[in-house]
């Protein structure tokens, strides 16, 4: 499910059921869940083990927050629906409005995709800034209380463990206490303990899908000329295990990402890091690192071993009074940048699940539809991961065709803006992957002769493409002068 098909926000559909909800985790998924729940109940308490700062700073509980975070259009549109004016607030706080047609350079299959023709605005910032503005807006919603420095310890259940009735918490320097609730939402991210908790209380744990990719990210901050909004994505792509990305963010900076899969991890020493960047098939990242001063020598590192998805929708028994959202439900290879958008679409799914009168079966209604949101991101992330021969995991039927089709689509997109438009709408979770099989797109992908030996009409953003293994980079256009 994507922005095109998700049920949109409609406050009038929700009736107040009363009661108290505890959301565990004040990351993006927890904050968005709290926002839609506040329409339906009297009180929502969001707890987080971290202090929740008023400033946009990286938090310990979100170790990925120093890494590049792209907010695609699906996520931004939902944030705007739930918090009118959010996009403008992001820009006012220093976020960057990128014109995707002009400023986004996506490299795949040996060349840059042609510039798109359809409007493709992007709102770029650091993860701490997205989250801090969100936190501020959530704190202003009637009925919501944020409690930082408050660690979730356990769920409280009735005697036969059929209904979750609250949580046990521990606040800084105090003893454990209970917090009763009619509904508890697990938004604790990848460290979620719900699967093991279920097992301990006589439930089957959710069937789990895992695709190991042994990915690691690094992040460096560069000084950026204020009016330079270029954004670059050279994603690892089988058999090339390395990639990089560049995102303009607030305070006149670029966040520069390097990544590598299957153990080919980016280093954290500046010199070795530059050498890693120089090994990418196009020199843009390496040129940026050479030309612009780094804000500090610190290079943040983040390992991401596997895509993991819990199939709660397949469980026959699940306790009442409990939901699981965001990364706690599924987390996937972040190189496509879809986690926050998935969390946002899940919030709309929860909103619609709350529109049904009955409180019973809320979890079933939510998990069934949330699975459709996760499917979209999972398909893209694990599909690309499984195209590496080193990746362990069951290849779904049709994988070979999908690999062939997408690589042909990317090669033809080097000269065909319609294909760039179609792909970026899928990447940004506006349209479903199936939209790439529409006759008008399929014809452009499959027509004879287009994917061989073509010259690339788009100037690469600096330097020559080095990847000689791909046929259609053979004749490159004149290089753009300097970055
Ligand atoms: C390296 C990396 C890069 C990424 N890049 C992108 C990107 O470009 N674009 C994108 O959209 N997404 C990206 N993501 C995904 C994105 O970070 C998440 O999918 C999204 O933020 C939703 O996460 P969440 O809120 O479910 O969990 P988290 O953000 O992990 O938040 C979980 C919260 O739960 C709290 N918590 C945990 N345990 C407890 C406890 N016991 N008690 C109380 N509180 C607790 C934590 O402190 C934290 O605040 C990336 C992820 C990674 C790892």
Structural write-up:
The protein is α/β, with parallel strands linked by helices and 483 residues long. Helix content is 30%, strand content 22%. β1, α1 (28-37) and β2 (43-47) form a beta-alpha-beta unit. α9 (339-355) packs antiparallel against α10 (362-386). The longest helix has 25 residues, at 362-386. The chain is globular and about 65 Å long.
Helix count from the secondary structure assignment = 13
And the CATH topology of the domain at 11-71 and 126-207 and 311-384? FAD/NAD(P)-binding domain
Query: What is the fourth-level CATH superfamily of the domain at 11-71 and 126-207 and 311-384?
Result: FAD/NAD(P)-binding domain
* Cα end-to-end separation: 38 Å
What share of the residues lie within helices?
A: 25-40%
The global form is globular
Instruction: Give the amount of beta strand, in percent.
Output: 15-25%
On the 0 to 100 scale, the average pLDDT is 91
Oligomeric assembly: single chain
Q: What Rg is obtained from the alpha carbons, in whole angstroms?
A: 23 Å
Unique bound compounds = flavin-adenine dinucleotide
Note poorly predicted spans: 452-457, 468-483
Please tally the β strands and state the result. Answer: 18
Which structural class should the secondary elements be placed in? alpha/beta
CATH architecture of the domain at 11-71 and 126-207 and 311-384: 3-Layer(bba) Sandwich
CATH domain class of the domain at 11-71 and 126-207 and 311-384: Alpha Beta
Largest pleated sheet:
8 strands, mixed
Lateral strand order in the biggest sheet:
5-4-13-14-15-12-16-18
């Amino acid at each position: 499910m994507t922005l095109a098909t998700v049920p949109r926000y409609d406050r009038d559909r929700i009736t107040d059921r009363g009661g108290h909800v505890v959301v565990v985790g004040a990351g993006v998924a927890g904050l968005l869940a709290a926002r839609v729940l506040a329409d339906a109940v009297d009180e929502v308490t969001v707890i987080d083990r971290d202090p929740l700062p008023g400033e946009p700073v990286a938090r310990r509980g979100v170790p990925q927050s120093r890494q590049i975070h792209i907010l695609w259009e699906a996520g931004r549109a939902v944030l705007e629906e739930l918090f009118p004016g959010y996009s403008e607030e992001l820009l006012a706080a220093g976020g960057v409005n990128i014109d995707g047609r002009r400023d986004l350079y996506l490299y795949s299959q040996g060349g840059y995709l042609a510039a798109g023709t359809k409007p493709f605005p992007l709102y770029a910032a650091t993860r701490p800034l997205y989250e801090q503005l969100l936190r501020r807006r959530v704190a202003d919603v009637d009925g919501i209380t944020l409690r930082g420095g408050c660690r979730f310890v356990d769920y409280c259940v009735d005697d036969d463990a059929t209904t979750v009735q609250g949580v046990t918490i521990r606040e800084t320097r105090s003893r454990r206490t209970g917090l009763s609730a009619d509904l508890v939402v697990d938004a604790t991210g990848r460290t979620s303990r719900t699967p093991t908790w279920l097992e301990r209380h006589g439930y089957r744990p959710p069937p789990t899908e895992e695709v190991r990719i042994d990915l690691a990210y690094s992040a460096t901050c560069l000084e950026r000329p204020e009016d330079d909004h270029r954004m670059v994505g050279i994603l690892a792509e089988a058999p090339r295990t390395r990639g990089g990305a560049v995102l303009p963010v607030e305070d006149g900076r670029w966040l520069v990402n390097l990544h590598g899969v299957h153990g080919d991890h980016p280093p954290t020493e500046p010199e070795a890091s530059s050498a890693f960047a120089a090994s990418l098939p196009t020199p843009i990242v390496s040129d940026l690192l050479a030309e612009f001063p780094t804000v500090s020598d610190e290079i943040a590192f983040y390992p991401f071993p596997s895509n993991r998805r819990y199939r709660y929708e397949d469980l026959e028994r699940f306790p009442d009074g409990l939901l699981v959202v965001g990364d706690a439900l599924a987390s996937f290879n972040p190189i496509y940048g879809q986690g926050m958008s998935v969390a946002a679409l899940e919030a709309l799914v929860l909103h619609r699940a709350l529109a049904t009168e009955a409180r019973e079966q809320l979890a079933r209604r939510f998990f069934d539809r949330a699975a459709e949101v996760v499917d979209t991101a999972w398909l893209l992330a694990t599909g690309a991961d499984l195209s590496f021969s080193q990746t362990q995991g069951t290849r779904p039927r049709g994988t070979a065709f999908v690999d062939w089709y997408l690589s042909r689509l990317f090669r033809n997109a080097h000269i065909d803006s319609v294909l760039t438009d179609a792909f970026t709408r899928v990447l940004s979770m506006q349209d479903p992957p199936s939209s790439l099989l529409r006759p008008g797109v399929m014809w452009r992908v499959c027509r004879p002769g287009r994917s061989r030996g073509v010259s690339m009409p788009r100037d690469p953003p600096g330097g020559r493409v080095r990847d000689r293994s791909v046929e259609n980079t053979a004749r490159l256009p004149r290089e753009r002068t300097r970055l």
